Amino acid sequence: LSRGYPIEGALGVVGNHHQLDARQRLALQRTQCGDAVLAARLARLLGHGSLRGQPLLIDGFNLVITLEVAL
After folding, report:
1. Distance of CA 13 to the CA centre of its chain
2. Plot region of 19 (φ>0 → left; ψ -120 to 50 → alpha; else → beta)
3. Which DSSP category does 4 fall into?
4. How far apart are CA 21 and CA 67, in angstroms?
5. 31 with 41: CB under 8 angstroms?
6. Phi, psi of 8 (to 5 degrees)
7. In this structure, are residues 40 and 48 in contact, taking their beta carbons and an 8 Å threshold?
8. C-alpha–C-alpha distance, residues 63 and 30, integer Å
9. Helical H runs in 1-71?
């Protein structure tokens, strides 16, 4: 994606190579972004001074559901 390829094309190449079904391709698509988008997200996340050094709070219920679906 950082090289300018559209997500649909890149997903098609990777999905076909690894023989992914539609659900797996959708999961892969939802987790991908280019380097520029990643850098912007990290800057927003880590740039917020009040969150540095603070523990990360995770919603356990949604985590369990996510893990169940993954398994």
Report:
1. 18
2. left
3. S
4. 19
5. no
6. -65, -45
7. no
8. 17
9. 7-17, 22-31, 35-46, 60-70
pTM > 0.70: no
Three-state SS for 37-49 is HHHHHHHHHHCCH
Report d(CA 64, CA 43) in Å as an integer.
28
Structure tokens at 54: 């603070």
pLDDT tens digits, 4-52? 889 889 999 999 999 999 999 999 999 999 899 888 888 877 656 566 6
**What tokens does 15 get?**
């999905």
Token pair recorded at residue 63: 């985590």
Structure tokens at 47: 């740039």
Beta-strand (E) ranges in 1-71? none
Which tokens in the block code for residue 64? Answer: 């369990």
